[in-house]
Amino acid sequence: MTLNSQQKKTVLASFLGWTLDAFDFFLLTFLLTDIASEFQTDVPAVSKALFLTLATRFIGAFFFGMLADKYGRKPILMLNIVSYSVIGALAAFSPNLGIFLALRALFGIAMGGEWGLGSSLAMESIPPSARGMVSGILQCGYPAGYLLAAVVYGLLYQQTIGGYTIGWRAMFLLSFVPALIVLFIRSHVPESPAFVEAQKTARPGLLETLQKHWGVALYAVVLMMFFNFFSHGTQDLYPTFLKKQHGFDPHTVSWITIVANIGAIVGGLAFGALSEKIGRVNAITLACLIALPSIPLWAYSTTPFMLAIGAFIMQVAVQGAWGVIPVHLNELSPGAVRATLPGFIYQAGNLAASYGGPYQAGIAESAGGSYGYALALFAGVVAVCIIVVIRFSPERRGQVMTVLS
User: What are the residue boundaries of the Major facilitator superfamily (MFS) profile domain, all occurrences included (predicted)?
Assistant: First the structure.
């Protein structure tokens, strides 16, 4: 893969935008029990914040995507990053659970725009032969954000600095950090060449384009519903599983989660690159097949070491499958709506899968607090569903990307 300096900066900016977006989201997964304690409620009630964040992301994907298809990928990406940074930090000042849930819903809108903007900017700026690897790199931003959240949680949470003990509210103030990426994007990242070229010619509108491609769009939403069950169903409640079911301390929870996300990064890079050789559909299928035999080790081990090995393998599989998605959705999407459609499809799938967190928590509590059972059930069923559904997917590996086709 050979990229010039500007292309590398574009990929870096898109990667960092998604990494810190995910960092803001996954901070919450480490803090569910503590927020529940302060607001005098239970974990399923607080986990509705996960549902609301996922459920509102499609609004942001549509809104920010439409703006980017009209005004350009670069300026709207900057606006989007500032939006999710500020709203994420405001959660630190929530006086009650209701306000906290409302802010996380707004955060979901802001979070929903980043993936489509960053992936379209990157995919339109690089040569076709580099797309598989770059797809894996971009999607690795998600586990990298989770890993960063785990590191920060392990290093800072409940630590005393200058007489002040860092609690969950202080952790959310770290959401201001992503806004710094905007300075880098403004100075070093060019606009998408495909978007710049398209300004010379009239383009079809969103509705006209969707009328021509509604079948692919509908299929992709169903596919992304299962993909979002796959990722969030294996990630969001895993720290709670480690804390509540196994009674591990924050340090142990942190390092197991770090190991899992190292596996996720390995999987994303490996399967993204592999998809250039064996195809997008085959790479996703193989990754899901790897997930199935890892379930007993991942959900039913009893020691931190064995749970970490299981988590590593599971996330190699989950994020290996996900590592192909940025390039696959961008290749399937018509160029005139490439900033809108892939992100909207992704987040519409998120909406369909958004109640997975509270539903899993409810299953676990009804089974006597067996979060391992709920996690295993979700992972197994969804992996099989993805294998079946992905076999019907069209594939347009290596096609030339413009904003006019």
Answer: 10-397
